[in-house]
Specification:
Structural class: alpha+beta
Order of helices and strands: HEHHEEEEHHH
Number of helices: 6
Shape: elongated
Radius of gyration: 22 Å
Mean pLDDT: 84
Strand content: 15-25%
Helix content: 40-55%
Length: 217
Amino acid sequence: MSAPKISVYSLSDLKNTTDDALPNYLTSLKFQQSHFLADVRLALGYSAVVIAGITFYADYKLGWDATKYWTLWAVVAYFILNGALTYWIWGVEKGKIFTGEINDTLVSIASSVTKHKPIYNLQVRYGKPGEEPQVLKISAPFTRWFDSDGHFVATPFQQWLATEVPAIGEADPKKVITGSGKNDEKVTDAQQIKANTDLTKTPGNGGTRSRNSRKAT
């Protein structure tokens, strides 16, 4: 069965597909993923929905006069929960797509993209508990692991992660590209990017497509 195909012109589809692939790859390497951030987000969201549902049902059954006092407090609680949810997403999660650990090393990974630039950016924080974590910023074009038809190709993506992130490379050393092998991988990237040059010619795509992996400072 072939991999699902997405639109190569949709930056959100490229990012979301890659975001989904990253935790799957790490858990296959025996990384222990923490779902705490997602659990809190879901709890806040569902709590607000439950309050709204109960308020509507009570008003429907008992009428406005009997429920207006409780409705006031329900509305206040609803907005507090939604405010907390917004803060949690933007102030705590901050784009994190994976948090977990392997061999007593804590790992946190956040992803981001810039509008009209098909470059995938990762900020990786890793280190032992109680120690100052190391922060690593890496970037690569989506064309490195998507073909011209929009199929996600796992191997080059995994090789990129294993080569750039020490904690991942230690868990999957066979995917680490070093020495002449790394040069070969760059040639492969160039060939793949050449196959996708038509992306840069799409009218109104709003930006110049970078063709080289870069390491953020």
